[in-house]
Structure formats: structure tokens, C-alpha cells
Amino acid sequence: MGNDKGEVKESKIQYLLAEVWSSQRVLYLYFLLNMILTLIVSITVILTPRYLIAELTGNGKVESIILISGIFFIVTAVGGYILSYIKADYELSISRVRYIFIEKIKEKIMRVRYENLETPKYLNEFWRVTSATSDIEFGVQGILEKLFLISANGIASIFYLGILGRLNILIVLLLVLNIYLIYKLRSNVSKYEVETSKKASRFWRRQQYLSRVMEDLAYGKDIRIYGLSNFLLKKLVDNQKERKVIDTDIQKHHVAVDFAESIFACVRDAVVYGYLIYCVLNNRLSIADFTLCFSAVATLTITLEHLFEDVAFVSGDLFRIEEMKHFLELPNEEEPVSAEMKNEKVPQADQYEITFEHVGFRYPGAEVNVYTDFNFTIKAGKKHAIVGINGAGKTTLVKLVTRLYDPTEGRILLNGTDIRCFDLIEYRKLLTVVFQDINLFAMSLKENITGTDGDYDKDRFQSALADGDLTSFYDSYGNNQDMQLTRYLYDDGVEVSGGERQKMGIARALYKDGDIIIFDEPTAALDAHAEYSLYHKLATLSEGKTLLFISHRLASTRFCDEIILIDKGSVVECGSHDELLAKGGKYYQMFTAQKKYYD
Amino acid sequence: MKSLLKEMYILKFFIKRVWKASPSYVMASTAESFLGAMIPFITILFPKYMIDEMMGEKRISLLAAYVLIAVLIGLILSMITSGLKRYMNVTTRDVMIGFEADIGSHNMGVEYKNLEDPKYIELKDRAMMPIRERATHYFMVHYLPDMLKYLITAIGSLCILISFDIISLIVVLIPTTVIVFLNKEYQKKDILIQKENSTMNRFFMYYYGLVEDFSAAKDIRIFQLHPLLMKRNNECDDRIFTFKKRASVLKGKFDGQSRILEAFRSAFTYGYIGVKSILYDATIGSFTMYIRAASTFSDSTAKILNIFIQLRQDCRYLEEFVQLEELPVETGIEGRKDVDLDNGVLEFKHVSFCYPGTEREVLKDVSFKLRQGESLSIVGRNGAGKTTIIKLLSRLFQPTSGNILINGIDINSIDIAHYRDLLSVVFQDFKTFEFSIEDNVTSGEKVIEKQLTLALEKSGLEEKVQSLPQGINTNVGKRFDNNGTEFSGGELQKLAIARALYKNASVIVLDEPTAALDPYAELEVYERFHDMMENHTVVYISHRLSSCKFCQRIIFLEDGSIIEDGNHDELVSLNGKYSEMFQMQASQYVS
After folding, report:
1. Which residues of A touch B108 (CB under 8 A)?
2. Which has more pLDDT, A180 or B146?
3. Can you identify the CATH homologous superfamily of domain B430-504?
4. What are the chain A neighbours of B94 within 8 Å (beta carbons)?
5. Residues in A touching B241 (Cβ below 8 Å)
6. Which phi and psi angles does B433 have, rounded to 5°?
7. Residue B351: is its pLDDT beyond 90?
């Protein structure tokens, strides 16, 4: 345990304590009070029998017995009452701290760079971040509560050590040496446990996955149709069998230390009691003090054990804080990419043109580029359709334009300026995007469409609904903009169908009214009528604006000025619908394929 | 009294589950309780003899013997209990997994209609809260052996105390009894607070879901939704804390009062035993022993009481969980198993349907027959009732009126597992699993090589499988296996189709199977259709009307009723809704 590790560990606790200081300062007061009062009560509890016995072996006065008992009562009653009050309140405060961290994590998830959320590493490791706050036994709450226990036990231990030290310093040394040795052995096993737990983590994740799948209502249909119940249960059981092997191994290591501990304790006790008896027989110790030291040794052992266990626990649990801290310190996506690229103002123009200049892109951790030396221009005020077979990189294009990702090579320009130089939020104001999967939130219709619960543009809201073909839907619910969407929170909320959901996604995008419109496979769930009217609407709505329309339904691209066919990360064909048909190339082939059954 | 009986029932429920999951855990923990209960007596009994000897004869050999025996007994007991505790650590997980298996098995077995019923969903969320949020069941499993241990210790120390006199016993017991009554009052008030705030849990779970689920992440960024969402979340947290504060203040008061009573008990014990020892000239050794016994007795009874309180509280938290788990499962309902499903005529007879808890009729008097080997296409606008027909056919729901028959027999009378052998369904929102390709396709059934290869061929997945180094053993998705491979939307659809084909059911239902596919893949599905579907009865739902041309029969649904029924040419010549829709789609392709 070199200095280096000590420093890192401290910064994690400091990190926690800094938050405590800023939001729940009263915990410091409670901490002190808890320590002091526990000490006072512990002193009273251990000294009372000693004085009683002294009285019994001495004067034997009944009044003194009653007096001693009375003092005992007052101290432990008052001290105990205050301690209970403090405990209830500090537990609440600590819980508050945990919630504050949960809030921070939630906010960070919403604001961190998007690439952090899609990498396999993150998907697999993210449980470590939330493990800091998902439990009351571990992480933030567990550690803070243990700190209280540690301080109280620590100070009581010092007192007990003092009692024994007055008799003979060697006793103290023996006890402390004993406990220290055991602690070292323990921490070695803990290290081993952490190492091995890494191996066990995949069993843990698999069990979580299986439990979730069995419980998730979305899987219910398939599980029943395909009779998957026994299959999933068997996987759960087999998974546990594999995990048990690792668990047993870890516990075996622990048991070895347990045995060492018992043997040390046996030897220590024999020595200590032997010594105490020797002192009594040689009149160096009264019987009253004998019982005091005897109690002190017993109490001290338990207290020190708890103390070391708790310290080891905190030490071992800090990794969760580390993970959480690391996550919370990730830059938000609006942070500038580098010192050179920032502080450009988003140009105010009537129309916008986006240029891909030698763009290369690879997802983090992927082995193959999605784009290599990709060049093309989205012309101002024109409608573009991007087509290509699935996996060709169409959605990635959207992610690059919206700066959910940045190119790994080359750059993307808006009216000539690298988009990384703009303030991210200002840049995104230009964009209106409808993704493939629409997410609706447990809020009102108005809030889902406008994204705010405050001031909003009423006219734009109404026309967004109309243009998104939601008028009849809106009518059927009494034109109530405060109607709740989804049934997550309110029973009288409305669960919308797939088609209505897509329309709402469109309405939301229309309300935003950006100058660059991007539609990514928006009509997959729409029926023929809705699809048809949407294409027509899009054509009118995007008049004068720059439109990027991604679809594999080739018929929908006919209202676009330019069609771009992407294959294997590059543009292979480019032109209007008629031009491309005339070419007789890939586009022509795809079109014929879709048309086939309509003839 | 009634509530105590209910709690005992719940406790018995859990004990049964624990025993079923791991009898060794129960045995180990019982043994540990017995042995661990004895440890405190070493420091109660031995000091008495040591002190009396030191104040009396002062024989060194005897004193040495006392010390040796005490430490050796301590050694043996602690080693055995350590071993048992470590063993319990391992087997506790067996118990927890046992619980997970029971929960999962129940979830997968209840009637499907519950899964779309908001009332059931709410019950489930409330019921699972103590399990998922607080691991109440985990603690319960540990409380019981602890309680046994303290019980034994209490009885032992009680016996020692009684040898002093009965009054000391009463002195200890009276404050304890008062605490019990105080606790009852506390529980009542605490429950009220919990009830008032149960809706908050639902909100909390939703916002907590935002943490775990990244799918909304794109929308949140593009539309800058985080200020609003965080505002809502923080409001929810604040409300939760108002309730927590009330519960906490109540608890603090109760705990404080208990401690005063406990202080009184100890003080009185000291006073009483002390005074009586003076008056009756008891030995110092005995005094120490009785004081120790009294304190051990009050400690253990306090602990027993706390555990008892906690257990009762936990039982109450878990009441809804037990309620949930005792809902009947589908497979428990009796049904016929003798029906031949392979050569049948399926018939919807005047079927009407409303989703449970709603009044809107999604299907109105729908009647049609489906013969073995026929291919049927169901078309119509979104919300017309197409998927609902499939859910009724799969017996995920029952018709509100009318019957569904197979060869004249009402399908409700057939054993549900047997009936479901009839169908393979690929739903619009189908789910596959992050297991191997083989596992996904065979659904865990016995692997028949020929059938597997055929399913992969017919669904078009064979090429992909052959391109993978681990072939059919490759994991779908990289979550559990770095050598796994991500499947695109289209590939997942092929996987779902392969699964449906492998089952070799006589009726195959495809619900919007090409919605996510690109033109080539879509064409592939169409081209393979006949191959895929030979010897099967097929029901095909799509709003891509191009697919209707290769079905023998088409049903057009509007607002829950069948308004047109025939084959493609017939319906086109009708010049009705189908014709209109078809023209509309086709016109996009034809100049």
C-alpha cells in the first residue's frame, strides 16, 4: 500500500465528502455528536460494573449501589435518546446524498457525449457506475453510513486501549498486533476477491439479463408462443452453477483467514487472561479492575473487529465511487473538441449547405471504417434522398450531421465552417430530426411535442399537429394539450399505436422548425394512406429548406431533387430519380426489385 | 391478530421457498445459530469460576485449567461457525437465484392479458419494489437464523437468571413488554405513511428507468429535453423525501423511546442485583455472572424484538408480492390434449373484442374460416385490429364475445401448451435473445440438425451463419461474449423467421415482417415465401400491399370489421377500399 494508492483512495472519499459538505453539511455535526455521545455511553457502560464491584468488595453500601445505577440510567437514557434521533436523521441525510448523486448521473447520461453510450464497453461496464447509487448497503450510502460506525467504534477502541494500556503497554501492543495481522490477511483476500469478481461479473450480468427478460412484459408474447419458459429457467440455473464455483473459491480463501483469526484469538486470550490472573494473585490488580480489564478485552476485540471489517469494506467498495466519479467527470457534449475549434457563431442564412470533406469514420472500438474518404455536399435549399441497403451507413450519416458523433478523419462544414467550431446547442437549433425509433416521455402531449413546460409558440404547436396528421387524434381526445402520453405514471394516460407514435415524432420535429430537416426511415410503421400523405407534406414543408431524407422505400424518394446511393461507405450514384433510372445501375436495380410486386 | 396470521402466512411462504431453493442453506444456518448461540456463555460462566477461585483458594492449576478450557472451547466454536457462515455466503446466492427463478417462472406463466393490463402492471411494480429496491427477501433470509440464535441465547441466559430469582426476570421483562406495545403503535403509523406515498414509487421507477435505458438518448440531445426531464425528476425526488422525512422522524422517536426503556431496564437490573447481592452476601463471581446473564438476556431479547418487528414489517411489504405470485398461471388450467392440430380448419365465429379495462370495440363481429394450407393476408389501416386478431388466435387474449374454433372445438377448451404447438408467430415487436444463434432458432428445444439447417436456409440466414467463424454457436450481440456479433434489424428479422420455421408449427403468422428490411431483403422474403410456407397455413399481416399478391386470400379490415374478402384480382375488380389502397401505393413506383 504505497503512498500513491493512499492518495487515490483519499480523493474518492474526499469526493464524497465534498458533496456532503456542499449539500448536507449537517452530517458533519451529526458525525461529531455521534462519536462523542457513543463514547460517553460506552464509557459509562463499561465502568459501571467496575464501580459496583468495587463497592461490593469495599464498603458495601446500598445507597452507593443505587447512586451508581442512577447515574448509569441518566447517561445511557439521555445519550441513547439523542443518538437515536441523530441516527434517524443522519440516515435520511445520507440517503439524500445518494439521491443527489443519482440525479447527477441521470443528468450526465443526458448530456455526455453520445459515443459514450453506444460502445460495448460502456454497455457492459455501466452497472459499475450505477452500483454506487443503486443500493443502500453499498456505494455512496453504504460507505457514508460505515464512516459513522467507524468513527464511533474507533474512538471507543481508543478508550478501551487506554484502560488496558494503563495496566501494561504490552497487552495493548499484543492486541493491536493481532488485529493488524488479521487485517493484512483479510485485505489480501479482499484483493483476490476483487480480481476474481471481475471474472464473475459476466455471470452477474447474465443473471441480470435473464431476470430482466423473464420479467419484461415486452418478451411475454414470444416466450409464450415459443415455450421458452423452461429454457430460460435452465439458463438461469446453469449460470448460477458456474458462478458458484467462483464464489466457493473466494469463500474458501476467506475461511482460511477466519481460521487464522480464531487461532490468534485463542492464543491472545490465553495470554491476556493468564496475565490478568497473575496480576490479581500478586495484588497488582483489584477484582473490580480485573473485571474491568476482562470486559475491556472482550469489548475491544469485537469493536476492533467491526472497525477493521468496516474499514476493509469501505476500502473495497470505493471502486464504485471511482467509477461514478470517472463517469461524472466526462465532458458534456457541448464542451469544445479542442482549444482551436470553438467560438464560431452559427451563420444566420436563408439556406444552409453541408459539405462532407474527406470524411472518415469508425465507431469507437470497431475494426472497420463506416466511411473512408467520403465526399459529398448537401446543397442549400434542395431535397436529398439517401438510399442504400441496410448497414450501408445511412443512419451514421445522420449521427455525424447532428454531431452525435464527430468524424475520425476529415471534416464536416456548414456554409464553409467546420461544425465542431460552433456552440453545439446553437448548431443543433438548426436541425430538425425524426429518427427511426421515436421516444415518447411520460409527460403531456404539449410537453412531448414542444419539449418544454413553460412558454411555447401556440400557433406553431397547432400547425405541427396538423402537419403531422394528428388532428383527428387530437380531436378524439378533446383537443386537450395536457393529455398524458404513455401509461407509465398515470392510469388515464394514453398509449399510442406505432403509427401515431411516428406522427408525434414528426410533429415534434416540425415544431422545432429547424432550417435543415432530416428524416430517418420515418414511414416504416405507417400505412399506405399515411405514408402517401406524409411524402406530400414533406415536399411542401421543406420548400426552401435543406432536406435529408433517408429511406429504403424508393418510391418515397421521387419528390427529392437529388438521390444519393451509398454502398460500402461511399457514394456510388448521385442524381435525380429519372437520371438514375436511365443509368441502369444499382439504383435502377433496387427500384425494380421494390416495384416488382406492384405491377 | 388477523394481521399476525397473515404475516405468518407470508413468512411460511418464504420459508418454503428458501427450503426449496437450498435445503443446505437452511441446515447450515440452523447449525450456525445453535453453535453461535453458545459463544456468549463462555464469558458468562467462566469468569464466575475464575473470580470465585481468585477470591477463595487461589489454586493456580485450577485457574490455568479454566483459562485453557475457555479459550479452547472458544476456538472450536468460532472455527466451526466461521466455516458455516462462509458456506452460507455461497448458498445464499442459491436461495436468491431460487427466488429469481420462481419470480421469472411466474411472470412467464401468467395469462398474457395481464401483461397489457395497467392494473396488473401497477400491482407488479408495487409488488416487486421491496424485492428490487430494498432486497427485502434477502434480509428476511438472514433474519430468521439470527432470530433463532438470539432465542437460544435468551433462553440460556434466562435459565441462569432464574437461578438467582424470579423478580430479576420480571425486572428485565417489563420494559421489554412496554417496547413491544410501543412498536405496535409505530408500525401502524409507519404503514399509513407508506400507503400515502406508494404512487411516488411509480414515478421514481420511471425516472430511474431513464438512468438505465439509453434508447431515448438521441431524442434528448437533439431536442434538448434534459432540463425538463431533470426538473420533473427532481420534483419527484423532493416529494419522495418529504415522505422519507416523516417516516424518519417517526422512527427516531420510537428508537429513542426504546433506548430510554432499555436504559431503565439495565439500570434497574444493576440496582436490584447489586442491592440483593449485598443483602444476601452473594459471591462476586456470582454477581458478575448474574449481571452478565441479565445483560445478555436483555440484549438478545432486544435483538429478537427488533428482528420480529422488522420481519413483520417485511412481511407487510411483501404482501403484494405474495399476492402476485399466487395469481394463477396458464399451465395450471386444465385443458384437452387430444385435439389434432395439424389438419384443421380455424374459424373465427362472430368474434368481438375489447381490451380489458377499455370500452372501445377493437373487433366487431369478425367471422372467417382458414383452411389448412391456405395463405391469408390481413390488411387495413393502422389500428384496424389486425394484430389483435393474431393475439386472439395465439390465445394471448380471449374474445369478449364469440368463439374461435379449430375443427369445431373451442380453442379455450384445449390445454394451452398443447394449443400453442399449433402456431409460430413473428410479431411486429418480436424479441430475440442474446444467446447463440442455435439457441435462438431452436428455442431451447432438442436440436435436430436437418430442421435447423432448413430453417436457416429458408429464412435466408444461412449465408451469414456460414460467414461467422463460430457458425451457429456465435452469440447474437456482444453483451456477453466479445466474439459475439451484432445483428442488423433485417438480420434479426431473419432470425425470428428462422425461429418460427424451426418450430415446424402448422400455422405460421407473420406480422409486418418486412417493415424494417431494405428492398433486397424484402424481395428475398417475398421470393422465398412459397418455399418458406409450403405445407403450412400462413397468415400474413402487412400494410405493404405488394405482399398480398402471393397470398391466396385477402381480408380487408376497417375499424374492427371485415369489409372485403377475396383474392387480389377479385378485390381489385371490386374497386373498393383495397383497390384504392393498392393503387395509391403502386402509383409511387409507376411513372
Report:
1. 214, 220, 223-224, 228-229, 232
2. B146
3. P-loop containing nucleotide triphosphate hydrolases (3.40.50.300)
4. 240, 244
5. 92, 96, 99
6. -120, 155
7. yes
- Decide if pLDDT at B193 tops 90: no
Taking CA atoms, B117 is separated from A32, A217, B484, in Å, by: 52, 11, 36
B400 phi, psi to nearest 5 deg: -75, -35
- Long-range (24+ apart) CB contacts under 8 A made by A456-460 are A457/A511, A460/A511, A460/A513
Q: Which of B63, B97, B526 to mutate to test the interface with A (most CBs of A within 10 A)?
A: B97
Q: What is the ipTM of this complex?
A: 0.84
Q: Which among A115, A193, A225, A259 is the top mutation candidate for probing chain B, defined by the most B β-carbons within 10 Å of its own β-carbon?
A: A225
Length of chain A in residues, anyone?
599
Nearest to B74 among A55, A87, A269 (CB): A269
Across the range B266-295, mean pLDDT stands at 89
Which residue of chain B has the CA closest to A262? Answer: B75
* CATH of the domain spanning B335-422+507-591: 3.40.50.300
Confidence bin at A222 (pLDDT 50/70/90) = very high
Is the pTM higher than 0.80? The answer reads no
At A183, the amino acid letter reads Y
Instruction: Transcribe A15-31 into DSSP letters.
Output: HHHHHHHHH-THHHHHH
Same fold, B335-422+507-591 and B430-504: yes
| Nearest C-alpha in A relative to B264 | A73
The residues, ordered by sequence, that sit 6+ positions from A414 with a Cβ below 8 Å of its Cβ are: A346, A347, A352, A353, A354, A422, A427, A430
Q: What distances in angstroms separate CA B206 from CA A441, B223, B441, one per listed residue?
A: 10, 20, 33
For chain A, percent of residues with pLDDT exceeding 70 = 94
Q: How confident is the model at residue B544 (pLDDT cuts 50, 70, 90)?
A: confident
- pLDDT, greater one: A12 or A559: A12
The fourth-level CATH superfamily of domain B7-200+248-325 is ABC transporter type 1, transmembrane domain (1.20.1560.10)
The larger pLDDT score, comparing residue B539 to residue B302, is at B539
